[in-house]
Design brief:
Helix content is 57%, strand content 4%. The protein has 20 helices and eight strands.
Length: 706
């Protein structure tokens, strides 16, 4: 039997001597992870499989660069080369970059930033993960069936005639699209419905603005990709003639469909990266973010404008001159909100107390690399220069400076920033700085030379090249190996930190957002209290505490809205409300004395949902009896002076939801039933209340027999 100081896990079992309950040790076995509804575990599973996809795509990239070390055949044939660059692009785009930040860091951090216990739709969250797994499995299986050689865009008419496994690969991408839509829907609902007290739209962390804008694009644009890929599958299997000119179709129509999704998809990749930058730059500059509203609105502006610029991919596809001029102008317009973000980040850093920790090094790398990617995009958005640069290595370099230099570098900044929170361990700062330096140098050596090659006319996707391009290709290949070395070092020190890293404090960096108010790693239910939000960038409210090597709030109560479950029952409360004869009332279905808020109701398998089911009370159990009960925390304590109702609808009415009539009904309902004393009770679901009833009755029977 656990003593009074033992920490209980969610299933009522002791967590072990000196072992704090967290989402990492809550539940045992593989199945407790594979079928979990906990957003943190789902985020960790996403992190594992998405990083595996990144490794696979990186292997394909290294084969490509090794082949291009010399003119002619080096290590593979031309056919194999075509398959390699197709698989590199498809794996990196569909399996890594698009889901990368939202599915991993978004899943883990978003509910914590909201002070919530989970996302709004945890089952949909798990379904999106399994859809990703199914889609990824189908896509990877296509490599075995017959690797695709069309390029990651699957352009017709070649994709409708090649003998490779186009159907399997596009079917995998189709399934992955559903995963993206589910994730986006979940985040939109969560941000709309689960913001804590004090968190208005313009007091949300900018990370949430970025994820919200990304979710809008995911929900609106991804169905276009799904329809396009289904039409391509129908074209190959049924010969319906949508894209086949011989049957009255138009192959350029495929390009319109594909890029109408895929250019917004570029912002699905980059908006979460920009959101991470807003958090990291503010914290490591020691300053309040500059131009909060401009950054927030620019995220929405990018999301909306992203749907209007797909035509700049098709300047040489036979569009009219007027159409090209319109798309060129729109392309320049979408650069404006991106520039607004960059200017505000630089203004935040101006006269700041900048700390060059690993997350900030990646943030500075992002600013440099993304600026180059954005400025070179102006040449591709201008009609006169794009005609010359189209389908050259200049486009390859531009794309990688935006996607790798932007999204991947920001992803690495986010990983390093939230790593102590996710795993509760600190990594080696010295090794992290070395890794960041190698990645920065290796990346620029790999891709800056490709700007030069492209401007000189070197076409992309070519297996062979003229001798005058040899030096550029060799420099690019050397840079890719330096880049690989940086990633191998990173993998080494991050894995080492999991085993031997120093334990992380709750707030090692000095961030003021709510995720830093819980332990590292977070407990299963995230917070012990209902949270109240303040200014997410008011860093002056924090101070350094050398005893814990972390930051603490000067006034911890400023972010606590109501007390929550603390894992133990108070002795003074459990000694009250006993019936004559010593038998405590275990379950009562009448309205009772107040506990916390409506969303604190803990129902088995329905976490964070307010359901139309009665809420039961557990009162007056002796301390001796309570120590062996298998309770599922968090079960909130009563709060004297506020009525608590068995009907969750009445709880909502008490909070002003449902109109004045409902609130008045709730008040009248409470007048005769609310008690004046301060006794402590615990809320239970019907199922859990029944389980506790059986436990106590069985133990009482054993005691009587003895």
């Amino acid at each position: 039997m656990a003593d009074a100081t033992t920490v209980l896990t969610g299933d009522g079992q002791p967590a072990g001597p000196g072992k704090r309950d967290s989402y990492l040790n809550h539940g045992k076995g593989v199945l407790s992870w594979l079928f979990t509804l906990d957003h943190k575990r789902i985020g960790i599973m996403y992190l594992a499989v998405i990083l595996s996809s990144f490794f696979l795509g990186g292997v394909f990239a290294m084969f490509l660069r090794t082949e291009l070390l010399t003119p002619g055949q080096t290590i593979m044939t031309a056919d194999t080369y075509n398959k390699m660059f197709t698989l590199h692009g498809a794996v990196m785009i569909f399996l890594f970059i698009i889901p990368g930040i939202p599915a991993t860091l978004g899943n883990f951090v978003l509910p914590l930033m909201l002070g919530a216990k989970d996302v709004a739709l945890p089952r949909l969250n798990l379904a999106s993960f399994w859809l990703w797994m199914i889609g990824a499995s189908v896509a990877v299986a296509s490599i075995i069936i017959g690797a695709v050689d069309t390029g990651w865009t699957f352009y017709t008419p070649y994709s409708t005639s090649t003998g490779t496994a186009v159907v399997a690969m596009t079917l995998g991408a189709f399934i992955l699209g559903f995963s993206s839509i589910f994730t986006g829907l979940n985040f939109i609902v969560t941000i709309h419905k689960m913001r804590p007290e004090g968190m208005t739209w313009f007091r949300m962390p900018l990370f949430l603005w970025g994820i919200y804008s990304t979710a809008i694009i995911q929900v609106l644009a991804t169905p276009i990709l799904g329809i396009t890929l289904l039409l391509l599958i129908a074209e190959r299997t049924l010969g319906v003639g949508i894209f086949d000119p011989a049957l009255g179709g138009d192959p350029v129509l495929y390009q319109h469909f594909f890029w109408f999704y895929s250019h917004p998809a570029v912002y699905i990749m980059i908006l979460p990266a920009m959101a991470i930058m807003s958090e990291v730059i503010s914290v490591f500059s020691g300053k309040h973010i500059f131009g909060y509203r401009f950054i927030a609105w620019s995220s929405i502006a990018i999301a909306l404008l992203s749907f209007l610029v797909w035509g700049h991919h098709m300047f040489v596809s036979g569009q009219s001159s007027l159409t090209n001029m319109i798309f060129s102008a729109l392309t320049f317009s979408v650069a404006i909100p991106s520039a607004v973000k960059v200017f505000n980040w630089l203004a935040t850093m101006y006269k700041g107390s900048i700390r060059l920790a690993a997350p900030m090094l990646y943030a500075l790398s992002f600013l440099f690399l993304f600026a180059i990617g954005g400025l070179t995009g102006l040449f591709l958005g201008s009609l006169s220069t794009d005609i010359h640069l189209h389908d050259t290595y200049f486009v390859v370099a531009h794309f990688h400076y935006v996607m790798f230099g932007g999204t991947v570098i920001a992803f690495l900044a986010g990983i390093h920033y939230w790593w102590p929170k996710i795993f509760g361990r600190m990594y080696s700062e010295r090794w992290a700085q070395l890794s960041a330096l190698l990645i920065f140098v290796g990346f620029n050596l790999t891709f800056f030379t490709q700007f030069v090659m492209g401007s000189h006319g070197m076409p992309r996707r070519y297996y062979n090249y003229l001798p005058e391009f040899t030096a550029y290709h060799q420099a690019s290949t050397v840079g890719s190996f330096i880049l690989m070395a940086g990633f191998l070092i990173m993998a080494g020190y991050l894995l080492h930190s999991l085993v031997r890293g120093e334990r992380a404090p709750a707030n090692p960096w000095g961030g003021a957002t709510l995720e830093w108010e819980t332990a590292s790693p977070p407990p299963y239910y995230n917070f012990r209290h209902e949270m109240r939000a303040g200014d997410p960038y008011e860093l002056d409210e924090l101070r350094w505490d050398p005893s814990i090597k972390g930051y603490v709030r000067r006034d911890p109560s400023s972010v606590i809205a109501a007390p929550g479950w603390d894992g133990l029952m108070a002795e003074n409360a459990l000694s009250r409300n006993r019936r004559p004869g010593g038998r405590p009332p275990l379950r009562e279905r009448r309205p009772a004395v107040p506990i916390g808020q409506a969303w604190d109701v803990a129902l088995p398998r329905h976490r964070d949902s307010v359901l139309r089911r009665p809420v039961l009370r557990l009162c007056g159990v002796s301390l001796e009896s309570s120590r062996g009960l298998h309770l599922r925390p968090p079960l909130s304590r009563q709060e004297p002076g506020r009525p608590q109702y068995g009907d969750p609808d009445l709880q909502l009415a008490d909070r002003g939801v449902g109109g004045a009539g409902r609130a008045a009904q709730a008040d009248s309902h409470a007048q005769g039933d609310a008690r004046a004393d301060d006794s402590l009770c615990i809320r239970l679901s019907r199922r859990q209340g029944g389980g506790v009833q059986q436990q106590v009755e069985a133990r009482a029977a054993v005691g009587a027999a003895i």
